[in-house]
Amino acid sequence: MPEIFKKTFDTPAYKGSVEFNTGLYINGKWVDGSEGGFIDVINPSNGKVITRVSEGTEKDIDDAVAAAHTAFETVWGHNTPGYTRGALLYKLASLMEQYEDELAALESLDNGKTFGWAKKADLALSIGTFKYYAGWADKIQGSTIETSIDKIAYTTHEPIGVVGQIIPWNFPLMMLSWKLGPALAAGNCVILKPSEFTPLTALFTAKLAHEAGFPPGVVNVVNGYGARVGNAIAIHPNIEKVAFTGSTLVGRKILEASARTNLKDTTLELGGKSPNIIFDDCDIEQALDWTIHGIFWNHGQACCAGSRIFVHAKIYDEFLAKFTERTKQVKLGDPFDPTVYQGPQVSQQQFDRIMEYIDSGRQEGATVHLGGERFGKEGYYIKPTIFTDVKKDMKIVQEEIFGPVGVVIKFEDDDDVVRQANDTIYGLASAIFTKNIDRALRTSQRLRAGTTWINCANQLHPQIPFGGYKQSGIGRELGEYALEHYTTVKAVHINLGHTI
Questions:
Q1: Known catalytic residue at 304
Q2: pLDDT tens-digit profile of 392-419?
Q3: Domains of the chain with bracketed CATH
Q4: Which one is catalytic: 55, 102, 196, 269?
């Protein structure tokens, strides 16, 4: 029998208890992995084991796919009207509201993000996303198309069928909602693989989905490693669509697997190296606030992080001095301490990767203006880090670091900064700070990025699409646009008596 995880929290931010199953959730039941294996879940604040979860395998993916297909053919898809699907999604959102403290505590525990941000941002957006798509579930419509007087044609937007979804560790619950919301609203059945680093909120949400009343087989959650469970999803011949959020390297492998097997419909939300452009006519205090948020929020572990900070030459020295002082005020520590802004990186692996980038910057001649060191004696903490004196071909300028590391780059004029900002393989997000609306809009049009924030950063809403240009991905999450990736269009021709 799968194990039950129980924990009592007694922290300044949250006091309470959680209890849920740590098995695989397949066909409405909690089961052990087919090979009986387990994965340790580590607390990044101290490096100690929190609990262990059942490890899935290829056989478990086969079982989940079979359950999902049965559900799609019998109790979901066309068998369940949109208003019923919407009611279930809304009930799930309501249950998440009921347990938002428990979910925020779990997100802090196994990811390391602060409880305050987990509740304020991750939970709020996740709940809002499910409510948003609950409203869409009975409004997915086709159209009639003019042909001739003796013919009628119309289109329907139908669910694809069985969908595989692979989510990352940086925003576990938020990414779960971005994936499940549109997929379930459109009538698809899902096999979801959470990250092996952060599976706890996905399992708790599976418990809530069961309580909400989703039929068996509609939502399946299979813990496991990417090399086995993720790959099994990518190559499975009976999974008709795959959605992935993670690194560009893995995204390429998933796209390749789709091409080699059954040409799955594929959406990929991948890496970023977002430019944050500070013009000389900006409100400097406003720009400082958002720049701190843009790079150090979630410990820099955000694909849209404003990690390339371009500052106009006229205000470069002033901005850098103030940015340095603001960065020194970023407080690191226990994620359950309400005064803490930045917690630990998610894992030893990620800690080591970030430190390798910092070492690379030093070796290539960049200046560590601030930080660049470990914080504390336990856990995976890295001090907020600022590099200056960088060159465009350095790894820290071109590659995604995914940590609290920003590079500050001087620019001379609008053409110069647009050229530098677009000099990247990525194109996920960007930010512009200026009081001149013409300058803001003109620059936004020239940037090759899927999102531009003007006088703000890292702003996400359920109704606004999110996705990238170039190697930042294929397709869009959120908004009405996401539904396009979970439906397929059928054209119907009706003959009213016309003969050949």
A1: no
A2: 999 999 999 999 999 999 999 999 999 9
A3: 4-270+474-489 (3.40.605.10), 275-461 (3.40.309.10)
A4: 269
